[in-house]
Amino acid sequence: MKYPKPSLLILYGSLSTLLFGFMCTLFVHFFISEVESYLFFIIPFLGAVFVFVIFNFFLKKFIQHRLAILYRSVQTKQENINLPYLDESLDEMIENAEEKVEQWRKFQTKEILKLKEQEAFRREFLGNLAHELKTPIFSIQGYILTLLEGGLEDDNINKKFLERASVSTDRIVGILDDLDSITKMEDEKFQLKMESFDIVGLVKETFESLELMAQEKNIVFSLEDPGEPTFVVADREKIGQVLTNLVRNSIAYGNKDGSTTITIFNIDDLTTIEVSDNGIGIEQSELSRLFERFYRVEKSRTRHKGGSGLGLAIVKHIIESHNQKISVKSTPGIGSQFHFSLEKN
Ligand code: ADP
Fold it and tell me: Mean pLDDT, the chain, as a whole number?
């Protein structure tokens, strides 16, 4: 049901008082004592004016003031919700109240949902982190205990165990380095160092730095480029990290005697880089979660122990902070292709 505006209500109230005053005067005149004729107008008129003044000035101001304070106390930083201020009239205030409080409710519900999501994310993140760190720390603990309990004197195992402990330490350092990268990139002050550079040159550098790792699995690198330097505008160091993570994965999840190919092609004002392999591939159902932190395709946790589980999350973060997109296509048993674009110079 829609109520009339407060101003109209006050007017109706005053008119009713006028009528009521007139009836009362009439009643007194006929049943109690005779009333002078001019009083028939004066008494109802004074009653109506009294009601009008009391409601219009005092009560209206009082309600308006309290409402404005109430609105202010629920006011949010959200700019598109303009809650009423003291300078709005009571009519406007009441008319807009329902709509504004509804807006406010929706905004708060969204905020609560966001906070709940962040909380769930934080919990999952900490759980994953603990899980990732537990494996190498427990193995280091195991090796140290064995060495302390006499293994140190046993030349068959002492060096081997120390080497294994060192590998586990490297794994922890890798996880911490990746976490550090993500944290730095999430910092509000983080800024990309944009410059113009030749992406073909950077791909060649990446291949060189991962050559030894590829040789262990006899994986061949190949580059298909437009045949000339291709200049892009991006943060060279960060794009180097993207290429390293993608190529490293193509080796880690690639088959023995396989191949990793990087293809560079220009479309309009974008340069697209595709990193493809003929490795184990990824199930379609896993693709949407692939870029999440610590997400691993099932079974690969046991298959590949080197990575931090943050590699693709970092890749996505870097590409998105360049306002570009990364996508993946994959077929189990055939191979995977990761594409990302960069702004052409
Ligand atoms: P990780 O340290 O486990 O490699 P990433 O974030 O780099 O972490 O990758 C997440 C998961 O995505 C990997 O565990 C792996 O299951 C899958 N993955 C990534 N790249 C490839 C690829 N080229 N081929 C097959 N699976 C891949």
Answer: 87
Q: What is residue 303's predicted lDDT score, i.e. its pLDDT?
A: 46
Distance CA 210, CA 145 (A): 35
Q: What topology does CATH give the domain 119-186?
A: Helix Hairpins (1.10.287)
- Given a contact cutoff of 8 angstroms between Cβ atoms, the answer to whether 224 and 263 are in contact is yes
Strand ranges (DSSP E) for the chain? 194-198, 220-224, 231-235, 259-267, 270-277, 326-331, 335-344
Q: Which atom of ligand 1 is nearest to the CA of 250?
A: 23
- Classify domain 194-344 at the CATH topology level: Heat Shock Protein 90 (3.30.565)
Domain boundaries defined on the chain: 6-88, 119-186, 194-344
Q: From ligand 1's centre to the CA of 143, what distance in Å?
A: 28
Supply the pTM of this predicted model.
0.70
Q: Which residues pair with 197 in a beta bridge?
A: 232
Residue 320 or 78, more confident = 320
Q: 200 near 225, Cβ under 8 Å?
A: yes
| pLDDT computed for residue 333 by the predictor | 92
Distance 228 CA to ligand 1 centre (A): 31
